[in-house]
Specification:
By secondary structure, the chain is of the alpha/beta class. Helix content is about 45%, strand content about 10%. It has 17 helices and twelve strands. The chain starts with 19 loop residues before the first helix and ends with a helix.
Length: about 450
């Protein structure tokens, strides 16, 4: 193409040789082009805005101040980085969430995001109403503890990411109360019974137990059963290990060392509140309570201490369940909502965000390198939990979707024995029969 040369002045500027008519035509053309460009940009922005107007619904059971503030702050940050996206969170009590999610799944009406207790992941996968995260852009399994990331592995596909990492439970005790009763933290069941009785006064019980009809009751009882030789599948629940472990809990209640009101107590906040309010000298609970305890001016080494869950015979290895929650994305809302929901949980997987969430949730980060950094930063109150969590037993290992059904049989037996409606042996025998059928299925 031949370029037309425009005469220039001696100083190198373009010579103004255009006629008045040509100037007016050029001005008109520029105006027309400007209007067209502005219209195109406005249309593009309107189209983009419409495309990103997404409301993500989310359900979970998180109820500690640290957990609530962490999710609230993160959602605001996510919304600011994604104009047009709104995140609506709904709290559902722990004992009710699983049932609600199954009902919603049956009606193809799940929230876009669901945070579920890790043993329930396999059940949600079986509904066919959640999408494999490994099929979404940006997914990676790199760096995670195998036990953590594999919670969502099914059929070669990954369906979940950890919410804030993993956790476990240990015995937390009130230092002043133990000192006043002239007892030391128990290491064995016999010491636990003796200490709990000595710690019981008109003002407080020796220990707060969790015995509500829900998974947290099974989870609380598992260290006593598993550490005593109980099978991970509960196949021998009605034999010695199970009978001895449940008899221990029954004795604590019959002695008056634990309140029978525990039959309606959740692990958090019910049982934990008993301890925080000074109505119980000990509790078996987890590090997610640290922020709440600190707010109540209870600090490790000053007001409370932590030791492993006592074992029946000195020298037995303590086996605790692996705890934590997992994010899952439902099929609700179409592909755009699914990808946006994934981006929401993916943003929580960066090392810096993992550290923030772990601190506020009271969890151990799910990635090995981040966990090592966290342990260096965390206080001494984490020592028992870190050692236990790294070797904790995944509850669904080898059981998959059978675990929730088995757990229900277990907590039902615990409730029956502690309420007095059945003897320990009768309650566990009933559970044994149910579990055997489940395992064969």
């Amino acid at each position: 193409m031949t370029r037309r040369r425009i005469p220039r002045s001696k100083n190198g500027t373009v010579a103004n040789r255009l006629t008045g008519t040509r100037q007016r035509r050029l001005a008109a053309l520029l105006v027309t082009l400007t209007v067209a460009i502005c219209a195109a940009v406005a249309f593009s922005q309107a189209t983009s805005s419409a495309a990103t107007k997404i409301t993500l619904t989310e359900e979970d059971y998180f109820n500690t101040p640290g957990q609530i503030s962490a999710l609230s702050a993160y959602s605001k940050q996510f919304e600011a980085a994604h104009p047009g996206v709104t995140v609506k969170r709904q709290y559902v009590p722990f004992a009710n969430l699983d049932t609600k999610l199954l009902t919603q799944a049956a009606g193809h009406d799940l929230p876009n995001l669901l945070a579920v207790d890790n043993p329930f992941v396999s059940t949600m996968i079986s509904t066919g109403q959640v999408v494999p995260l490994s099929g979404l852009s940006g997914f990676s399994t790199k760096g995670y503890y195998p036990a953590v990331i594999n919670e969502g592995l099914s059929g070669g596909k990954y369906y979940s990411y950890p919410v804030a990492g993993a956790n476990s439970i240990a015995l937390i005790y009130n230092i002043a109360m133990l000192k006043a009763a002239n007892v030391t933290p128990p290491k064995t069941w016999a010491e636990l019974v003796t200490d709990a009785k000595a710690l019981t006064t008109p003002q407080h019980y020796g220990i707060a137990l969790t015995c509500e009809p829900a998974e947290d009751t099974t989870w609380q009882w598992e260290p006593f059963f598993w550490s005593n030789g109980g099978d991970a599948t509960f196949a021998n629940i009605a034999s010695g290990p199970g009978v001895q472990a449940l008899t221990l809990w029954q004795q604590l209640i019959s002695d008056g060392s634990a309140s029978k009101a525990c039959l309606t107590w959740s692990q958090t906040p019910a049982a934990s509140t008993q301890f925080i309010d000074g109505k119980a000298a000990m509790m078996v609970n987890g590090p997610w309570n640290f922020p709440t305890m600190n707010q109540a001016h209870l600090f490790y080494g000053k007001q409370f201490g932590i030791v492993p869950v006592p074992v029946r015979v000195a020298g037995q290895h303590v086996v605790v369940p692996l705890g934590g929650e997992d994010w899952m994305v439902s099929k609700s809302g179409g592909t755009a909502a699914q990808q946006m929901a994934f981006e929401y949980i993916q943003g929580m997987q960066s090392p810096s965000m993992e550290l923030k969430l772990a601190k506020l949730f009271g969890y151990l980060p799910g990635k090995i390198a981040v966990a090592k950094t966290y342990v260096k930063q965390a206080g001494p109150e984490w020592s028992v939990y870190v050692n236990q969590t790294l070797f904790a037993h995944p509850r669904t290992l080898g059981l998959g979707v059978k675990y929730p059904k088995i757990s229900q049989a277990v907590w039902t037996a615990i409730q029956a024995a502690l309420s007095g409606s059945q003897s320990v042996q009768s309650a566990l025998s009933t559970a044994q029969s149910q579990i055997s059928t489940i395992l064969k299925g």
